[in-house]
Amino acid sequence: MISTMRRVLLPATFALVGLAATLSLTAPASASTPTPTGQATVMTHSGAMGTYLTYGQGKSLYLFVADTTSASTCFGACAAAWPPLITTGAAKAGSGVDQAKLGTTSRSGGGTQVTYNGHPLYLFAGDTAAGQTTGQGLNNFGALWWLVNPQGAAITGTGTPSPTHSPTGGGGGGTAPPARPGY
């Protein structure tokens, strides 16, 4: 009787452990939303893609074309690849940034995301150093991702994204897409 129970319970135990491991790997990405670490400061950087918004130590900021309002549509795996710029309190304008265009929006599942000219702002996990723009023009999670210029429009140029720190100056900036409804 005990050996029969072991033959039934042992595989069932392993199955439950495997299921728990699988669920932890596929947990909702609200857990991947960055934890607020303070007031976010948005700045600008000039490089090969033109002048665009950055955060912190020069990490590039992007907008997601699928966001048609100031509310984010990027959650789960999307937010893991494109972490939202989270702030505690109002975002602060650094050099070249218009404070009047900075705002915030509440994220589903918690956190306050920074917006600029009504666009929720994101970092790209593939940009590992200041000045990188490897997310520029990518079509991920159903729409395009663009750098944001100081006027708050998308930089749609797809010149050569910088895998490393770009020298200051020059470079085309592309053009902004047509105005979106609600903006």
- β content, as a range? 15-25%
Strand order of the largest sheet: 3-2-1-5
Topology, number of strands: 11
The residue fraction in helices comes out at: 10-25%
Separation of the first and last Cα atoms: 71 Å
Q: What structural class results from the helix and strand content?
A: alpha+beta
Give the rounded overall mean pLDDT.
77
Low-confidence segments, given as residue ranges, are: 8-35, 164-183
Radius of gyration: 21 Å
User: What composes the largest sheet?
Assistant: 4 strands, mixed
Could you give the order of the helices and strands? HEEEEHEEEEEEE
Shape category: globular
Question: How large is the count of helical segments?
Answer: 2
The quaternary state of the protein chains shown equals single chain
Notes on the structure:
With 183 residues, the protein is α+β, with helices and mostly antiparallel strands. It has a domain at 29-155. The protein has helices at residues 2-25, 77-81, and strands at 41-47, 50-55, 59-60, 62-64, 92-93, 102-106, 112-116, 119-120, 139-140, 143-148, 154-155. The strands form three sheets. The protein has a four-stranded mixed β-sheet with strand order 3-2-1-5, with no helix packed on it. The longest helix has 24 residues, at 2-25. The protein is globular, with a radius of gyration of 21 Å. The protein starts with a helix and ends in a 28-residue tail after the last strand.
In short:
By secondary structure, the protein is α+β, with helices and mostly antiparallel strands. Helices cover 16% and strands 23% of the residues.
